[in-house]
From TrEMBL:
Obligatory cofactor(s): a divalent metal cation
Chain's gene name: LOC115744091
Function per UniProt: Removes the phosphate from trehalose 6-phosphate to produce free trehalose. Trehalose accumulation in plant may improve abiotic stress tolerance.
UniProt name for this protein: Trehalose 6-phosphate phosphatase
Catalyses which reaction(s): alpha,alpha-trehalose 6-phosphate + H2O = alpha,alpha-trehalose + phosphate
Assigned keywords, A-Z: Hydrolase, Stress response
Pfam families in the record: Trehalose_PPase
Annotated coiled-coil segments of the chain: none
Record-stated family: Belongs to the trehalose phosphatase family.
Any one GO molecular function term: trehalose-phosphatase activity
GO BP: trehalose biosynthetic process
InterPro entries: HAD-like_sf, HAD-SF_hydro_IIB, HAD_sf, OTSB-like, Trehalose_PPase
Annotated EC: 3.1.3.12
Amino acid sequence: MGMTKQNVAGGSGDNSGINVMSDLYTASLSMYPASLQKGGGYIKVSQLLKHLEVNSAQRISSWVDSMKASSPTHVKSPPSLTEDNNSWMLHHPSALDMFEQIIGASQGKQIVMFLDYDGTLSPIVDDPDRAFMSNKMRTTVRKLARCFPTAIVSGRCRDKVYSFVRLGELYYAGSHGMDIKGPAKGSKYKKGDQAVLFQPASEFLPMIDEVYKELVERTKSTLGAKVENNKFCVSVHFRCVDEKEWTELAQQVKSVIKGYPKLRLTQGRKVLEIRPTIKWDKGKALEFLLESLGFANCTNVFPVYIGDDRTDEDAFKILRDRGQGFGILVSKIPKDTNASYSLQEPEEVMSFLQRLVEWKRPNLCRQQKV
Ligand SMILES: [Mg+2]
């Protein structure tokens, strides 16, 4: 099918990829009534259901439950949750309320900033290709990078996340840290002439590509399902799929992955992700970046990692284990986390980053306000 080939070509995450993604979305919409008429897609799924082992069905329902819990469609706080929420906020207070204490803890140390993208710098939207960050947020991150070494760590492919952020002075770790590059333009933190470049999973590229094609094919009958090629990993987005279809979609994904023991599934906010089994994650990327920045065995470094997703927990845990810096979880609801502080939403992340800039370079803020 032409569509599939085109998608592969766009897999490097350039603009053509974005167009192809929306084409794919439109195609899946128009395909829906057709597949209903033929009855093809649905019969296949019900046959699949029969062949699933109990264990795997349990795992799928736990993914789906946990995806629903971590991405509530309607934010609600029934009275019974208030107590839990209070206790959670006690253990993970707002990074804005604790700003003075945070600055106090960083005294004499080099702050290094790590920022997730989706749900941290940009709001979670229905169409992942339209997860734009505001100009105000971009300006804030640009100023932040003038104060501290700053890295974006995302599950998306590096080119795609760069196309959203568009700041050459940052470090970028795409595909959950499996694709790392240093600043393209002058950064005072850049060591030597070469931009850092590290791709620990390059041997998996052909396999990922193959799985991507299979997933596109297998999920095309599910209305709203969207498969994104993130180069070193593949994301299957559930955001536009009716919750009633989630279990079936998860089973479709699982059935594709079955044939690839070297790949594993992880789950995020309304997304299932397929990645190589190599021991590499956002936490490892954080450590790699700290090392590249020359802070390998330093005690005077203070990394701050802000993220909203399960995959960010690997980075939060590294910071907790190292006893250096801390993680900030972006969440409106209590979650099990290794982060020390919380922020409710990207707006609050921006306020926190602004306060860091104001504290470090009051002049930078005054100059730019004029
Ligand atoms: Mg995120």
